[in-house]
């Protein structure tokens, strides 16, 4: 979607939608989603009102880690289609007012990438981190080629870390190259060439995978921040309309480093993602062993606390100012969906009422708009399992379009699907919720439209929190009162002065100086101070 507006402007109005391409829509009946399938479903996104989508990695890959192991940065994986198919999809999305972002895996490749294959047989190559030692340094893996020594992976052994240098060198470890060495310089140039290639085909920017992982032994990510500041300078000169979003999980560091936006994530340097987890995570679905159990604020028992998120948001926005944005996702491909474990369908409207009226960039994970659930017991696929209680496959099941076979996702036999369809016969579908004006889908659509039509409810404008317990009460732009009660029991608190008119409300009344919110109630009210 071409636009003369720089990314710093159009992102302010963005409502993001994340598509896991292999699970969204299958056009050719092979059981795996593809670009043509996405293109055929663009009308759903347009109707919903989202205006920016980002795809998980769709490049050539052996798919040891669902595409986060890239074997060719300049061509898409055949299972999704061709580069021309992606360009056509991007153009079709643009005609509907939707921009498309790609997921850029900047810190590592697949061990099948030609760069790594060459490096494993060339002792002079510096594209990757090699230690020519008798014993492997901690975390290093033995060379698969004629080159002696060991290489450093980023995550799985099949994901060798690209060499962007070390912030701290050590003569005793000569493999710790400085950030301005030949290999790191070549990799920085390669990032520019990759971004330039895809932006030239009409894409609108990138979400950068594990953006903080580039420079090694980098206290506070200071050298990594310099690297991204350099790349952002180039991007602003060469492609000022292109957006750069980071998977960093620390907006107060990543945005000053050059990213237009960063996500609150389930991991990160501040409490290992506690601000996001304190909202949604109910200790089921994806559970990391180091996490301490907590009751989320959006929990039926009403035992969570909003202050953890609020304090982190205030701290980050105080640092960022007008330089960029924080994005708040409903979920993502690595984290449990909103509808996980004990969280029921009746709890989801309040969560969306908050997410779509809080001054962050909302990011809706595909299917969350209809309340798709995390499916326990889903087979592990393409590296989805990260721990005994952390299998991401349950958040990656196929999109549920209708009540036809395979929920309308694919015509393939059920046993040939990328992942099984949610077996629950009561599973939600787009078709059923489109036909029901009272559905979650229609509510999400109305909230998106309200956000777009009401600048005070968007990413800018003031936010005054009047009550951070149950119910949560805040005023946006001095003109709109928002009330959210995520617990099952009713909650009361004082109301601000002035008359109120309900704009979108369910189970909330404001009268005689008091707010009463029924269990799982929410409301957006126009506030007349006169």
TrEMBL record:
The UniProt record lists the keyword Hydrolase: yes
Gene3D superfamilies (alphabetical): Glycosidases, Oligo-1,6-glucosidase, Domain 2
GO molecular function: hydrolase activity
Domain Glycosyl hydrolase family 13 catalytic: 18-396
Sorted UniProt keywords: Hydrolase
SMART domains hit by this protein: Aamy (SM00642)
Pfam families per the UniProt record, alphabetical: Alpha-amylase
Residue spans crossing the bilayer: none
Family listed: Belongs to the glycosyl hydrolase 13 family.
This protein's name: Alpha-amylase family glycosyl hydrolase
Organism, scientific name: Streptomyces drozdowiczii
């Amino acid at each position: 979607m071409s636009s003369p507006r720089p990314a710093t402007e159009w992102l302010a109005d963005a409502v993001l939608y994340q598509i896991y391409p292999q699970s969204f829509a299958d056009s050719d009946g092979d059981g795996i989603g593809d670009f043509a399938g996405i293109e055929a479903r663009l009308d759903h996104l347009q109707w919903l009102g989202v205006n920016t989508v980002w795809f998980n990695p769709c490049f050539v890959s052996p798919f040891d880690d669902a595409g986060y192991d890239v074997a060719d940065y300049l061509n898409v994986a055949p299972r999704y289609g061709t580069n021309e198919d992606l360009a056509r999809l991007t153009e079709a999305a643009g005609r509907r007012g939707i921009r498309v972002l790609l997921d850029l895996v900047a810190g590592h490749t697949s061990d099948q990438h030609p760069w790594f294959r060459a490096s494993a047989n060339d002792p002079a190559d510096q594209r990757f981190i090699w230690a020519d030692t008798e014993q492997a340094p901690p975390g290093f893996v033995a060379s698969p080629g004629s080159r002696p020594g060991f290489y450093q992976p980023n995550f799985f052994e099949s994901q060798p870390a690209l060499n962007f240098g070390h912030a701290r060198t050590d003569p005793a470890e000569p493999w710790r190259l400085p950030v301005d060495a030949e290999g790191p310089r070549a990799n920085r140039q390669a990032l520019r060439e990759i971004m330039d290639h895809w932006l030239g085909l009409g894409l609108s920017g990138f979400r950068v995978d594990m953006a903080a992982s580039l420079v090694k032994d980098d206290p506070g990510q200071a050298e990594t921040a310099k690297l991204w500041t350099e790349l952002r300078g180039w991007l602003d000169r060469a492609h000022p309309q292109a957006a750069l979003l980071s998977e960093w999980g620390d907006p107060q560091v990543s945005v000053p480093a050059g990213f237009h936006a960063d996500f609150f994530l389930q991991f990160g340097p501040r409490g290992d993602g506690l601000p996001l987890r304190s909202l949604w995570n109910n200790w089921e679905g994806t559970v990391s062993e180091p996490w301490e159990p907590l009751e989320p604020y959006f929990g039926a028992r009403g035992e969570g606390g909003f202050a953890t998120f609020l304090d982190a948001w205030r701290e980050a926005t105080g640092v960022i100012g007008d330089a960029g944005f924080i994005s708040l996702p409903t979920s993502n491909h690595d984290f449990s969906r909103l509808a996980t474990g004990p969280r029921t369908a009746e709890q989801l409207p309040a969560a969306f009422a908050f997410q779509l009226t809080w001054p962050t960039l909302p990011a809706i994970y595909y299917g969350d708009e209809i309340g798709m659930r995390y499916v326990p017991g889903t087979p592990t696929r393409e590296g989805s399992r990260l721990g005994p209680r952390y299998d991401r496959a349950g958040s990656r099941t196929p999109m549920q379009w209708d009540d036809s076979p395979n929920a309308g996702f694919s015509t393939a036999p059920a046993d040939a699907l990328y992942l099984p369809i949610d077996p629950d016969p009561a599973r939600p579908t787009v078709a059923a919720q489109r036909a029901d004006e009272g559905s979650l889908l229609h509510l999400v659509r109305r909230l998106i439209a309200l956000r777009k039509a009401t600048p005070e409810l968007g990413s800018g404008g003031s936010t005054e929190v009047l009550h951070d317990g149950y119910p949560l009460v805040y005023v946006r732009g001095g003109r709109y009162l928002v009330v959210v009660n995520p617990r099952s029991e009713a909650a009361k608190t004082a109301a601000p002065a002035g008359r109120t008119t309900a704009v979108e409300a369910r189970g909330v009344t404001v009268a005689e100086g008091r707010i009463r919110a029924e269990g799982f109630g929410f409301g957006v009210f126009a506030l007349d101070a006169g």
